[in-house]
Each structure stands twice: as C-alpha cells, then as structure tokens.
Predict the structure of Hydroxymethylglutaryl-CoA reductase (NADPH).
Amino acid sequence: MDYEVAVARELDGLRIPAKGEYSEVARQQRLGFLREKSGLALEGVGSCSYTPEALKNNIESLVGTVEVPLAVVGPVRVKGVHVDDTVYVPCATTEGALVASLNRGATALFRAGGVTAWAVSQRVLRAPYFEFFDLSAAQRFCQWVGDNEAEVRNRVLRASDHAELLSLEPVVIGRCVHLTFEYRSGDASGQNMVTACTWSACNWIREALALSGDMPLADFAIEAGLSGDKRVTGQTFTRGRGTRVTAECVLPADVVRDVLKVEPSALVHYFHQLSASESAAGSVGCCLNIANPIAAVFVATGQDIACVHESSAGVFYLELQQDGNIYASITLPCLVVGTVGGGTGVPQQRECLQLMGCAGSGKAMRFAECIAACCMGLELSTMSAVASDQFAQAHERMGRNRPA
Amino acid sequence: MDYEVAVARELDGLRIPAKGEYSEVARQQRLGFLREKSGLALEGVGSCSYTPEALKNNIESLVGTVEVPLAVVGPVRVKGVHVDDTVYVPCATTEGALVASLNRGATALFRAGGVTAWAVSQRVLRAPYFEFFDLSAAQRFCQWVGDNEAEVRNRVLRASDHAELLSLEPVVIGRCVHLTFEYRSGDASGQNMVTACTWSACNWIREALALSGDMPLADFAIEAGLSGDKRVTGQTFTRGRGTRVTAECVLPADVVRDVLKVEPSALVHYFHQLSASESAAGSVGCCLNIANPIAAVFVATGQDIACVHESSAGVFYLELQQDGNIYASITLPCLVVGTVGGGTGVPQQRECLQLMGCAGSGKAMRFAECIAACCMGLELSTMSAVASDQFAQAHERMGRNRPA
Amino acid sequence: MDYEVAVARELDGLRIPAKGEYSEVARQQRLGFLREKSGLALEGVGSCSYTPEALKNNIESLVGTVEVPLAVVGPVRVKGVHVDDTVYVPCATTEGALVASLNRGATALFRAGGVTAWAVSQRVLRAPYFEFFDLSAAQRFCQWVGDNEAEVRNRVLRASDHAELLSLEPVVIGRCVHLTFEYRSGDASGQNMVTACTWSACNWIREALALSGDMPLADFAIEAGLSGDKRVTGQTFTRGRGTRVTAECVLPADVVRDVLKVEPSALVHYFHQLSASESAAGSVGCCLNIANPIAAVFVATGQDIACVHESSAGVFYLELQQDGNIYASITLPCLVVGTVGGGTGVPQQRECLQLMGCAGSGKAMRFAECIAACCMGLELSTMSAVASDQFAQAHERMGRNRPA
Amino acid sequence: MDYEVAVARELDGLRIPAKGEYSEVARQQRLGFLREKSGLALEGVGSCSYTPEALKNNIESLVGTVEVPLAVVGPVRVKGVHVDDTVYVPCATTEGALVASLNRGATALFRAGGVTAWAVSQRVLRAPYFEFFDLSAAQRFCQWVGDNEAEVRNRVLRASDHAELLSLEPVVIGRCVHLTFEYRSGDASGQNMVTACTWSACNWIREALALSGDMPLADFAIEAGLSGDKRVTGQTFTRGRGTRVTAECVLPADVVRDVLKVEPSALVHYFHQLSASESAAGSVGCCLNIANPIAAVFVATGQDIACVHESSAGVFYLELQQDGNIYASITLPCLVVGTVGGGTGVPQQRECLQLMGCAGSGKAMRFAECIAACCMGLELSTMSAVASDQFAQAHERMGRNRPA
C-alpha cells in the first residue's frame, strides 16, 4: 500500500492543473505548468483566438490551439441533388502537392461541365446488447421487441426532435441480442444524438424486462461491436454509415489530355490494373487516395477527425466510352459528416462551412455532395499523374523538405 | 467548341488568384478574392501566424490557417523500449468528452505503474507494377528481378540516405508483376521518400528491360493497389505499414474500481462481448475507439491526417488474471507516423512534438510507443464507461451543444 | 483461318462423346472414350449405382460416380427450436481424425445435456443491376422502384410458390442501380429458385422501362457482385445468406475434464488467444475449423458443395462461468443449405438426409440446427486438443499415411 | 450425480458400436445399429467398394460410402509451366448446368489456343503461439528466435523429408509471440506434415526455454489464428496459402461470339460492373463462381473438401484489347491442393487424379495449373451467360427439378 500511496502522491505532483474549469485563467495555469515542466515557451500553441468558455462542449482542459495551414480548392462545380453551385472548398493540410492536385482535379471536372452528385441516404447505428441467461430467453426477447416496437419508437421520439428511427433489428449471437437501432440524424453526424435516444429507449426496455420477470437480463451495454462507430467493418462498408453519396462526371477526351495530361485509354487501363490489385490486396473499397480530401475538409470544417477512419472507404469507377470520353463515378457509403453540432460551431471551422455554403441546418447533404466532388477530382488527378508517370516527379517538386 | 471556350472563360473568372506563389501578398490576394466571392469576412481563418514562404513544402495556395482547439493529456507514464518517461501528449480535437476520457485512462495507467510499450518494427511499401505482353515474360521478369536484386538495392541506396530496403518481392497477377519494395524509412513516415527511391530503381529497371529486349514492357506505374497507402487492406493490416507497436499493462483491481469505476470482471466480460460482436461485424481489427487519440495526436503533431484511415486498426486484448487484476494489451500494426519531414516542421506542430520529447531524428519509435499508451488508456476508459453504463450519461454531460 | 479450322477439327477429335444425352449407353460411350484416351481401366469411378436418366437435373455428361467414405457421427443431442432429438449425422470425408474428433465433441455435448439451437432466419439474395445513361435516371429509377414495389412483388409471386420476397432495396453505384431482391426460399437452398423469380420480375421491369421511355436502360444483368452467391463478402457475412443459426451449450467442468481432457480455464484462455490472433489475421469470423463438418455433411447430403466457401464463416464464443463451467455458443450467419431440390434427391444423399430426419419439406431449419450442433462439437474438441497440446499427437496417430 | 450417471448410461445405449475398429465386420455392426435405430434400409450408402482396412488413415468408424455423380470436363488445353497437355478433368457434383458450363468454357479456351498457367509458389503456414508473463520476455524471445533459427531449422529437417522451411517470423500481440513457420510442402497439401514439423521444433524450443530459465512460458499452443488453416483471412488471401497459381488466355473475338455467345465489349463491360460491385460488397477477391470447379475437382480427387472454404478466393481479370480480342487472367493465391497424402490415395479418387495425369509425386503444380484453367473457363462461361442475359434461361433448362 505504501507503494500505491507514493504513486498517488507522485501523480498529484504531475497533474495538469485546473481540471474541469473553462476559463482563460485556467488555460493560463495549464500553460504555465506545461512551460515549467517542459522548459518550452509554447508560444505558438499557447496563443488562442477562441474564448475558453465557448469551447465548453468541444474540449476539456483547453491549453491553446494548433494552427493547421489552410488552402481553398476551387472552383468546384457541383450539380447535385442538394446543390447546384460553384463551390470553394477549404482544405487544411500540411502535405505538399495535395492542394495542387485537388485543384487540377477540380479544373478537369469544371471543364467537363461539373460533377453530378447525389447524397442518397443517411443513417447512423447504435447497437446496444442485451445478454440473457440462455438462448431461449434471447429468442423470447426478439419476439418481445417485435411486439413492442411501437413503444420503443415512442421513447426515441421523446428523446430527440432530430433523430428518426429507420429500423430496429435484433442480431442474435448466442444468448446475446444486439439490437441495432438505425437512425437518420438530420444535419448532425449524430453519434451523440443517437446514443441519447438509444439509451432512453433501452432504459424503458430494461424497466419493462424487469417488470415482466420472464427474461432476466444478465448484462447490458449501450454499445458493442455492431454500431461501427470509428471502425472500418464489413457491415458499415456494405450497409452504410453516415451519408451515402455517389457522384459522376463524363470527361471529354480533350479535357483529359489537356488538364490531366494523360491519354484517356491509358488512364482507364491504369484504373483497371489498380482495381485488380486492390482486390488482390484485400482492400476495403477501391479508391486510391480519397482519405486525403476527406481528412483535409474534416479538419477545416470541424468534423470528428477520427471518422476519417471509416469515412475514407469508397468505390471509384472509370469507363472508357465508345466516343473516347471517360465516364467516372465515385460512391462513398460511409461519409460521417454534419453541419450542425460537434466542432461545426467552433468559429473558424464555421467560417469554413460558411465559405462552402454548408453551415447549419439543412446543409449536410449538400456538404456530402461537395466532398464527393472533391474526392472524384483528386482520384482523377492522382491516377492521371501515376498513369502518365508524373507522380514521382510532382512529389519531387512539391514536397521538397523531406529527408530523402 | 464555342461551349468549351465559354466554359474556359468562365473558369478563368472563378479561379483563385496567385497560383504557385508563396508570399503574404499572394495569400492576401486569395483572401480578398474569396471575401468578395463569398461576402464573408473570413477574419478567423484569414489570420495566420506562419510565414507563407516557410510552408512551401506543406501546402499550395495558402489562404490562412484553421485553429484546432488543443488540450494536453497527461501525465502518461510510458516504459517503452524507446522511452522511459512521463509524457504529456498534445491532442487537437473538437469532440467533447474525449480529453476527459483520455485523462481518466492515463490516470489509471499511471496508477498501475505505467504502460510497457515496444515499437517492434517499421516498414513502408511502394509497389509499382510492370505489365508485360504475356505471362511468360512476367515469369522471366520475376527471375530477372531475383538475379538483379543487388543492383536494384544499389539504385535505392543512391536515392536516399534514410530509406533502407528490407525486401523486394514480386506479386504476379496474370501478366502484371507488382514489385513490392518494402522499406524502413527511419523517422519519417516515408511515403514520399520511398516513392523517390522506388522511382529511381524502376527507372533503372526500365532501362535495363529496354536494353535486353527480351521482356518488352506493356505498361508501368509507380503505384497500384499493393502499397496500401491511404487504404485499409487485409495486406496492410496483417503485414504492417508504418510502425508496428504493441503495449501492455497490468491494472490492479482497485485501480480499475477506483479510477475506471467498474468491476474488473464486468470490464473483461464486456470486452469479450465486444470482441465477438466485432468479429460478427466483419471489423478490421478489434478496438473500440483508437481512431480518437490517433486523430487528435496526428492533427496536433503535423502527421499526415489522411493516414488516420489506415492507422486506426488495431487489436486490443483484456484478460482477467487469477489474482483479480486485469492484463491489457494493444497492438497497432500500421501506425503511420514520423517525427521529421512532412508537417512535423510546421512551427506549432513542432512545438507539440517537442512537448512530447518527440521532435526530430531518432524519435519516431518513441512517438509510436507514446501513442500506443494513449490508445490503451482511451480503450480502457471508454470500455469501462460502457461496461458500467456511464457512457451515455458522460456524453450527456460533456457534449451538451448537440441538437438532440 | 486455316489455323482456326485446324483447331476446330482437332477439338472435334478430342471431344467426349454423347453430349446432351442422359442414358446408360451414353455413359458407356463416354467411359469408353476416356479409357481409350487415358489407357486407364477406370473401374472404380466407372461403376455407378444410379440411373443416368434420374440424374438429369444434377449433372450433364455423366461418366460414373466417385465414392466418398462415409461415417456417421453421433449421438448428437439437439434441443433446437425446430428439432428436439438425438440425431446421427452422416459425414463424408477422407481426412483422418475428423470423425473421431466430431464424435468426441458430440459426446461432450451429449453429456452436457445437449445443444440448444435456433435457426433464426433464412434469406437468399439475387441482385441484378440496371445501368442507366446517367445518375439522374438512376435516381428516377430508385423512385420508380419504390412506387412499383407492389407490382414487382406480384411478378415474384407468379414465378414461384415457394419463394417469399422479404425486401427490395436499390444500391446505387454511380449510374448503376443494383436491385437487391431478398427472399426466403423455404426448404430449398434457393439459388435457382430466386434466379427464376428475379428474372421474371426484371423482365416486367424492363418492359415497363421500355414503355415509359423516361429511363432508357444502358445495360442489365441478372447478377453482379451484390448477391454473394459462392463468395465470402463483408455483406454476406454481416447481413446473412442462407440460414442464420445460433447454438449454445453449458459444459460442466467435469465433462470438459473427462471428455475433452482439458482444464476449463485452459480451454477458455486458449479461445481468447485464438480470438485475438484471428482478429490480427484479418479473419472473416472467428472459428477454428467449422469448414470440416460443413464440408463433410454437405458432401453426404447432396448440398451444393461449392457453398462450403461462404457457409464456413462463423462466430464461436466461449466463456468461463463463475461456477467453473463453460458457456459455449456458435453463430453461423450464412449456412447455405436445403432439404429439397438440387442434390438432395440423389438416392444416397437422400438416405443421408433421411438418417438425420432431415429429408424433404419442412426440414431445412432442423437440418441447419443439427449442423450447428456438429460445428460446436468439433470446435470444442479441436480447441481442447490444441489447448492441451494433444493436437499434434492425435494427428500423428490418426493420419499416418501422409508423406512426412 | 444421479443425473450424470443416467446421462452416461443413456449415452452408452445410443453409441454407434465398434469404435476404433477398421474391418468389414465392424462396418456391418455400425450399419446394423443405424438401420435398427432409423428403420431405414440404407442400401445405397451401405454398399462400399473399398476395403475398410485400407481407409484407416482417411476416416474413422466407416459406415459405407456416398456416391457423388461424376462427369469429366474437357478437353482442357493447358500450356503451363508444369504441364503442356490436353487434359480431361473429373468433376463430382450434383448441381445441374455446372458441367455444361465448364465444358463451354473449356471449348472457348481450346479454340483460343489454350490456357497459359503458372503455379508460382507453394506455402503452408503453421503458427504456434508462445505466451510469456510480460512483453519484455516476449521481446527477448523474438531476439532468441533470431539467434537460434539455424537450430530450429535443423529440428524441422529431422521431422520430415518433404517439408522445407521457407521462413520463420515472430508476430507479437502483447506478451504473446505467434511464430509463423512458413513451409513448402511439396506435393502434399501439407497441413499434417507441417503440424508434425512445427511441433517437433516447438518441443525443442520449449525445452531450451525451460533450460534457460530466462523466459518462462505462460502458455503454448501449436496453432492459433495466424495459420489460416480452414479460414478465409486477409493474411491468407494476400500472403498466400497452398499453391499460388495464375493463368491467362487471349480469346479471339470470334471465339467469344461463337462459343460464348456474347459480344466481347459486352462481356468486358459486365466484368467491370461486377468488379465495382464486388468491391462494394466487401468481397474477398473478385471472381464470380470459382468455388464451383474447385469443389467439384476437390471431391473427385480426394482433396480436403473443407479447404474449398479458403481456396475459392481469387482475382479474375478481363481486358478488351485494341484488336477486339479479350485478354483474361485469373489468380488463385490460396489453392490448397495435393497429389499425395490425405484422400488422394483412396482408389476412386486416385483414378480421377490419374485421369488428369496428376497422381503422385511431382504433380501438385501441374494439378494446380489445370484447376486454374478450369476456373478460368467457368468464369468466362458464366459471365458470358449473365452478360448476354442467358443465365436464367440456362438454369431454367438444366436445373428443372427444383421446387420453384
């Protein structure tokens, strides 16, 4: 026990101060502590243009900010179902060549008449599990859920004005029943919203089970492996998570040659080799580098950056038409984005959303369509660079400070 | 043609000015253009504490910066192979509750005596493909590569002082040979470095093939599907990409109860249910939410944020020991990180690396071990919250501005 | 052309005779041809206890049969939702040790009081694609499908008395709409049945599209990648294909020790290591060797043996209970089986189904539950052998003719 | 206890007699028992042309055989690295239309001049795990393995004349080290062989660890999740298991039209849609139905039928050449086959191997190349049927006894 006391005491001396406080004073206390511990001035990250109190729901123990370089890609012409506009897309990155390549792709797409996009659907899962003492009780519970779905929906309704329960499906794994609540979460990415709604419904279910006595619960948790939150899974990729968006463009042969500097047939041939080798690599999806614009836009616009993980799997497609032009499509089945809530209200991130015309309610589908357009542009630009053997040279030119 | 001329003219009027220029004047021109187009003041993102010229290799067409809120998690005690220290870890995020949960995990680990970590290995692939006119030539080429490996290695050596070629393996898909160059890239994440080295080697190979006349090339590209760059693939996840790091900790039962507020047996039981349901979901790896700290640290420290995609798949493991304590391990097979090159030299990002004692040469393995420790802490904290049914409440409390 | 004529002539001389004929005479002609070409007597495979005419729907160009050694495993006690019986399970195999291990597992399960099983659901997909000339037409088609679902269902109804259309869902990939028809196929495995139904519905859809003129079809096919037939896919594994069945058993500690020759804690510990390493291997599902009984029963009972491919992915689960006993469950989400149609009517295969009490209508769910019980038994037996370090010895003993 | 005694007694009465005996008498006893229990005559499966004693290493508790209908597909022209021949391929199946489609594919390939095939490599893994008490010991063990690899190889050599150890690689998951032994197993599929070799090596390792005292073992097992035996995993699919074989063919346009009844451009277009939708389905590999010939040949030739599971994932590829002809390739990375050992010595199965010229030593690579040719033929035939909208009709015609 002496050891534990000593450790606890040591820990006290190492703790960053002002836990739980949201003020400039608290922030300066933390900064001072870290400066002393590290001997660093921390001048850059120590400066902060935000009011600590305003970030109460975005971060705990604020110390400052890190400035990520920002460029704006565009014009991006998007003729979507939820947008028909010329858009400028803010991208935050520190990777040389990315913005240049995004711009090249956007130019090709603009000259091709723009990208047609469609945010097809939106859904977020939360999948609590109910463990029973045997399979027979699990079976009765599945029946019970079917019989009581109306009341479950009722509880969800009471918990949120924005979440819409699309379906409720039990998945049985032995005596555990994972109950997948599938929601539409409107313009929020929705992870927190659907947690609250599901929890409310589950509380009612648990009360009802306790009353019935027929199916005693052995264990319960609001979340296990079937929600797909922050994970790349076969289920998420095939069923969708967040916004499913698809986009297409027909690129005239001369645009491909002039802007993308590649023969159309060479570009499509490369895509076919890429596709076969992605399959051989066991790739989830078939894209070359859509994680790049997704990450850059997510950072700029206050998205949950961790969702770059599951959002960056998609299906790209190229076809050489008989007229010599190229048909391109891209499908992103799990683009987890929102235009309200989370980091979208942080001032600079909000500016970025505003610049895209994507801030606030009613904008999430437009936002998804714009991102799909950027992804298509980058795929085309990068594939063209690779297919025409300019990729290595371009990186040589634009990413010079690497220690090669 | 008239239509195309009109489109080209329209595009000219919509282009963001000062392409290819790296100066404050150019930046202001772009800002001015965007302000006019959007009618927005762009005061937040328009301010920028960096010198545009200094970001030449990190971004094109700089417009400003976006400030991402920063907290520092710690103390994190890491007893790794490449670090034995108490570390403070900067995390950039806009997601409420994340930093609090990371700190709770770090506290538990500290009180348990710290995390033992081992960055086992590091590797980056680049896999150009060589397409021949038939399988027979592909077969001869595979033989040829075996016979000429020494010279290929020689070309790689000339192209970089930092890249080390670990292996060279042909993968045959019909008449295409994908030649996987596997490198150790030192302290850089290495994508650009290995592109340069591979390109140099491939140029020599192509010259040699042209001279021999025996195996005429039908097509070539520096990169197809087998490199795994910016993609989650079965190959990358099982073979590794970037740094492979594993970490462990034994958590005394009372630490689990006091800090994580859960019974050890309940936590481990939950993990087992999670594990089964991750398997049922077809998850790549078995973790709950390591994408969170990976994204937060990547943004803070100038990593390639798009690599959150492939880096966030890992294997978490919990075991209830006979003495009632918990053994925990985490294995991250594809953590793509660097401490030199890319965004690691941007001033504020460099401050963050310095705060962790991870800036510059010789620090990448230490950096990876620290990240693994943070991931373990968050997994423990989140799983404990879920297993003890506090997760929904905690989010209710800390993520209040969502539109629920 | 001369070359082609020569090849065609050569081909004529090499063709196996009596194409398209179903008779003993035809069979003997083929046999004679092969004997002459090969110089082999083909006495074994040349003998055949079936009437060629009776195999008209099972094979073309019948030459004979191959006898696969058959054992019967049991007694297997299954207390399922669709079976409460002691069953003997015919297994066809040439792999030494398999039947012995299956029997050991069955004994353990019998002594534990039997296996509780539940065939939860059954579904087969067929997913034709409709390609349009642009995304906008694809979007209109999705709307049209929603508006005309009743008539589509009507066409399905007319095509089969057994297939039941559970859902109809469009999946959009660019301008292609893959229309997933999800059926319950009763006691048939159903691949052919749902092909016929879907084709009938699609013919009507195509006529309707031709009449409307509004959404001209660019291309159509009855099947592309989304049906999952004969393929392991993330979609199939998570959504299910064929019968989804789950089973459980509580094994008393002394049964584990006496029959499986392993300490319960050692067995469960091994399972946890297996589970973590399956995850690290990127395994689809988490089982050790269920492909073995699935293959052996499929061959014995006239199932489509190729479906061993997608059927053999499942989720096994073990838990050490506080009372020292072991809880085991197994979940097979895509067990493609039938008790009518296909090879189930071939005389000897039918005998095998009869022996299990699984021949004919109304038996498919019972059949699935029995297979799940066998899978659980083998998993337990093999894992026990491995966990107690007897696996290598057992194989040494029972698989002696290998060239080691 | 009374209950357990009663269960044990009940079990005794239900046991199939003559356990462990290999004789006709024993077989008849079992048959008699099953006839009595079931009331069935079991005339078909009860007859058996094999001598029970001769099947000692292939099956326990033999009861009889099940006859699977056999056809022979061919001529199949294979110009492989290990075969340059016209081959007749025995296929055992009960699925109508399969043999007809295989023959159509073989005809197309013959008229195209045959299939070029290359069995590139062969490897089988066995991956025992060594669990230590902490990560530090695991690290020392990895070092120790590197230092003692020569002696480990020595132990493998002593255990088998046929297995060749290709590589030895530790995979660290926390404090567990999974040691992947990668072998070439010659003409045997090799699962048992490599178990014996690995076990022998591990016994030596364990003795050495016990002597050193420095790295006490907490647990050991000969097999956990990293071997890929009987499982579809990302590791197996990308690294290979069994034989990796690739094959190609150029199909003249008129052969495609005459034999496959489809326009070349329509066939290739279909393949591209298939490829995109396989990717969207999260498919392991990109083939339509290679599990069919693999299963049919495996049953006919005494392969381990359970290996249909992992063997049936591959990468098919089609390309429309500028001359209007079609280039086709297929790559099977994990075809688990053998021509000695296991069921390959059972008389009728051996006849089938002999008919292919694939019986005995030195034939496994030839065998793999022949199978790849059949897979290519069926893919072409089925895809052509689907692409030209004849698939549903063909099944209507040839699979008539289904209960549609």
Summary: The beta strands of chain A are 62-80, 84-92, 115-126, 129-132, 164-173, 176-184, 217-221, 242-251, 315-320, 326-335.
